């Protein structure tokens, strides 16, 4: 069970990296602002990860945040995402 929790924690740690790389790949000329923050913990009580990401680009705005925690009682978490796009000339 402990190995499963560690695999879930490592998988959750990969999410901010994927989001960050996707943001770099979609970079365009003009307006571009990004913010990202993450943290993680793994100790004898369990393992968890949390992150926040926001961006503004010529295509629109987006924001997301999440957290995942695994311990002896199970795995739980939450995700929130929002965004808006617009077409410019």
TrEMBL record:
Keywords: Signal. This is Uncharacterized protein. It comes from the Bacteria. Residues 1-27 form the signal peptide. It comes from Kitasatospora cheerisanensis KCTC 2395. PROSITE patterns: PROKAR_LIPOPROTEIN (PS51257).
């Amino acid at each position: 069970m402990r190995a499963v929790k560690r695999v879930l924690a490592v998988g959750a740690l990969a999410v901010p990296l994927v989001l960050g790389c996707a943001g770099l790949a979609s970079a365009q000329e003009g307006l571009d602002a990004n913010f990202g923050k993450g943290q993680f913990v793994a100790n004898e009580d369990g393992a968890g990860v949390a992150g926040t990401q926001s961006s503004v680009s010529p295509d629109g705005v987006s924001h997301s945040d999440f957290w995942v925690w695994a311990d002896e009682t199970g795995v739980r978490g939450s995700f929130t995402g929002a965004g808006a796009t617009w077409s410019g000339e």
